[in-house]
Amino acid sequence: MGWHRKDLIGIEELSVEEINTVFKTAEAFKGLLTRNVAKTPVLRGKTVVNLFFEPSTRTRVAFEMAAKRLSADVISLDMKISSTSKGETLRDTVENIRALSADIIIMRHSAPGAARYIADVLDIPVLNAGDGAHEHPTQALLDCFTLREKFGSLEGRKIAILGDIQYSRVARSNIWAMTKLGAEVTLVGPSTLVPRHFEKMGVSVSHDLRSALADKDAVMLLRIQHERQNASAFPSLNEYTSMFGLNKERLSWLKKDAVIMHPGPINRGVEIDSELADSEQSVILQQVTNGLAVRMGALYLCTGGNADAVSA
After folding, report:
1. Which CATH number among 3.40.1160.10, 3.90.870.40, 3.30.70.270, 3.40.50.1370 corresponds to the domain 137-284?
2. For domain 16-135+288-309, is the CATH number 3.40.50.1370?
3. Which has the closest alpha carbon to 157: 38, 276, 259, 24?
4. CB-based contacts of 293: which residues, under 8 Å, 6+ apart?
5. What CA–CA distance (Å, rounded) separates 25 from 162?
6. Backbone angles phi, psi at 52, to 5 degrees
7. pLDDT in tens, 222-254
8. What is the pLDDT of residues 63-80, one digit of tens each?
9. Residue 183 near residue 158 (C-beta atoms within 8 A)
10. CA 264, CA 176: separation in Å to the nearest integer?
């Protein structure tokens, strides 16, 4: 088995074997889902606690559904009304939750490194649902799982990630995952959002959309992360859209069968036209569906599950 970790904190620390083990497990669970198997009992008797210190819809709901499909009990806490608002430390919060017999913690936090910090404190699995602008590992895993379903392999595939790279945890995790799996990644956007220092991660950086999209097998759109920016990185959303928004004309700069991706939430008419988001080339909803299987796989593996034991 290619997985021996208690936690899933980031993609940077994972080996290709570990990534492929998650894919193998997710594939098996997806097989169960397509056969309309409502639940599998592998986490029966376990309690999963969702701690989301930042807003979330897809990720929180997907983790809840994944845990319930594995027969776990799920508690989701609104951290805006928790004791942290009264000055309680993050460590005290998670240690109290552990003392209440929680078996797994899933956490989203605005501070980079927060998930690693509590994973080192606790003796139970911790899964990172996003820590600041650092990493979002399950999003990258489901994105690459979706691409693997489409292409069979990411080896040699050319992928553009277009949008707010500077403030995106999704971009960082996908860069690690895609390059480890053999893809050629180009980051695209205005220089204020796509600085050259990302080239140290083994990717190309471009500020010219047409040349960057040429011959790409897939393009991933990212929304503008206004909540993490101290100042506007461009004059207006209209100007960003006029220069970097994906529309029908610019779609022709890609390969004819290129895949369109987006981790959500989508700002229709800003980074992508609605017509393209809903087109046959779009795999956005497949990403959401695959997110359930990938998170089932991650929860199962972090609790000691064996990928070979899951039967589809």
Report:
1. 3.40.50.1370
2. yes
3. 259
4. 26, 27, 29, 30, 33, 142, 145
5. 30
6. -115, 105
7. 988 644 444 455 657 888 899 999 999 999 999
8. 999 999 999 999 998 777
9. yes
10. 19
